[in-house]
Specification:
This is Cytochrome c-552/4 domain-containing protein. The chain is mainly alpha-helical and about 425 residues long. It is about 45% helix and about 0% strand. The protein has 21 helices and no strands. The N terminus is likely disordered.
């Protein structure tokens, strides 16, 4: 049995954990996750289940998954993060008596299912445990260990299908972006919480692999190509963002809309490092304006340039219309988001398309071209493109030979405070020939 492809280097992993939010939030209650009782991590952790010290070679799964989660996976540390001095300071700034007891914190730092969905071994202090991703095990905990158990049987009993790209990104986005009921608001970030950023394929790659991808895995669960995972992540992240713009999470009361939907770095950057220009801001947007986030829409423009070039102009126009709407009023934002969602709907086929190696290389070239142009001059867009370049390099299988070029790009985005669009474009232009 062969493990999933190699993980990022330790340096890259540390950078990515910062980029994705150092506290690594957990999962929201995606439909299916809390349908059945969560029996607790201890139910999976014995030496006859998933708690073996070493991987087993004679089974479909390695059976040391609990050990990997406990020792290597940041999700296991999510609750403990709430006990740190910095988390206590954030809670105090928000007027919360205790981060470890506040729903606003537990919803994304623990498997915070309702009390009637908690089994006898459930502990909130376990953080983001098995069932936060795989769904409540009440009906499949015992049956899934049977010799004749199949993955189809497990799903029928309530196991969440994390092997499906769309379902995976939906459950991840519950906290790595948000839902209509929970969101890392501007107030939360103002209190000290890290800015959130997410890219499905890079995040999946960076997580310590507690599953084995081999012929048996593909037969039981289906083969997931890295390109399809990346495309699915970009499409669904865009859809979730646009959908949230139409909810009370954005349209809440008060003078201002929820500012966390806007590009952080259109305001938060050193005053002596001017980043604004008219091409990136969009037609009709004045200097000094706060702008709605567009990083995933920029990546989708690159996707269109590569596989549906006739649609690129319309997407760019709709994106600019969204930015302009964000300067006007909530009704305009609602209409602009709706127009983009309508445009997005028929593009779901791109997530299911069969991509050749030549297709992936072509996509990577487009991303590199965008990086070398003004299109990636905003920090969040540059960040998404760099993550995409590395993800696609792993998919192609030539990551090692692209290391120098990727390192140069990561160095250009490693610090959002000192980020320079001009320096990033120059680094990308030098790296472009490598892709």
């Amino acid at each position: 049995m062969g493990r999933r492809r190699g993980a990022f280097s330790k340096t890259r992993a540390l950078w990515l954990m910062v980029a994705l939010g150092a506290s690594v939030p957990a999962l929201a209650l995606e439909p299916g996750i809390a349908d059945y009782k969560h029996m607790g991590v201890a139910s999976c952790a014995t030496s006859v289940c998933h708690g073996k010290l070493a991987p087993q070679s004679d089974k479909d799964v390695a059976l040391n998954e609990y050990r990997i989660w406990q020792q290597e996976d940041r999700h296991a540390q999510a609750y403990r993060t709430l006990e740190l001095p910095e988390s206590r300071r954030i809670a105090a700034n928000l007027g919360l008596p205790n981060a470890t007891a506040a729903k606003i914190c537990l919803d994304c730092h623990a498997d915070n299912v309702p009390s009637d969905k908690r089994g006898p071994k459930f502990q909130i202090s376990d953080g983001v445990g098995c069932e936060a991703c795989h769904g409540g095990s009440e009906k499949w905990l015992e049956s899934h260990a049977a010799e004749n158990a199949t993955h189809k049987d497990n799903l029928a009993r309530g196991m969440y299908p994390t092997e499906q790209p769309l379902r995976r990104v939906q459950v991840c986005l519950g906290c790595h972006l948000g839902t209509k009921d929970q969101f890392a608001t501007h107030a939360i970030m103002g209190a000290g919480h890290p800015r959130l950023s997410f890219e499905l394929e890079a995040y999946t790659t960076n997580q310590p692999a507690h599953f084995i991808v081999d012929e048996d895995y593909d037969r039981r669960k289906g083969k997931i190509e890295g390109m399809n995972l990346w495309v699915t992540g970009q499409l669904e992240t865009t859809r979730r963002y646009l959908s949230l713009l139409q909810t009370n999470m954005f349209h809440g009361g008060g003078m201002f809309p929820e500012l966390a939907f806007y590009d952080c770095h259109s305001c938060h950057h050193p005053m002596d490092k001017i980043r604004w220009n008219s091409a990136r801001a969009g037609a009709g947007i004045k200097p000094g304006s706060v702008r709605l986030q567009t990083q995933n829409l920029i990546v989708l423009q690159a996707l269109m340039d590569t596989f549906e070039p006739t649609a690129t102009k319309q997407l760019a126009e709709l994106t600019n219309a969204l930015i302009r709407a964000g300067q006007r009023d909530r009704a305009a934002v609602n209409e602009a988001a709706k127009a983009l969602l309508n445009w997005l709907a028929p593009r779901d086929a791109l997530a299911r398309k069969q991509y050749s190696s030549a297709d992936v290389i072509k996509m990577r070239k487009t991303l590199a071209r965008y990086a070398a142009s003004d299109k990636a001059g905003d920090y969040a867009a540059a960040e998404q493109i760099v993550l995409g370049l590395e993800s696609l390099s792993y998919t192609i299988g030539d990551r090692a030979s692209k290391k120098a070029a990727l390192d140069a790009l990561y160095n250009a985005v490693k610090n959002d405070n000192t980020f320079s669009p001009q320096q990033f474009a120059a680094a990308a232009a030098n790296a472009q020939r490598s892709f």
